[in-house]
Amino acid sequence: ERSGLGQETYLPSVLHLLPPQPSLVAAHEEAELVSFGVLDNLFKRTGVNPNDIGLLVVNCSLFNPLPSLSAMIV
């Protein structure tokens, strides 16, 4: 109750384990899940064709893989 975490608080699945087991693979999977879900929804709602986009900027302060998140999306 005092932690500030409520019933709708999101935590990555690796943090549901005790002890937490973070990994680059899990972080990459989560980034794909979130990014593609958001983009699919955005394209559907706006009617924008992904091929019409000429520039993509992705920023994540905690996860910076190689290849980049932008490369993963493109």
Mean pLDDT: 87
Count of DSSP H/I helices:
2
| Count of distinct strands | 0
Oligomeric status: single chain
Main sheet record = none
Shape: extended
Range of helix content: 25-40%
Unreliable stretches, pLDDT < 50, 5 or more residues? none
Radius of gyration: 15 Å
Class based on secondary structure composition and strand pairing: mainly alpha
Q: What is the string of helix and strand elements? A: HH
Strand residues, percent: under 5%
Distance between the termini: 41 Å
Summarize the structure.
By secondary structure, the protein is an all-alpha fold. Helix content is 38%, strand content 0%.
Question: What can you see in these coordinates?
Answer:
- The protein is mainly alpha-helical.
- The protein is about 40% helix and about 0% strand.
- The chain is built from two helices and no strands.
- The protein has helices spanning about 25-45, 70-74.
- It is extended.
- The model has no long low-confidence stretch (mean pLDDT about 85).
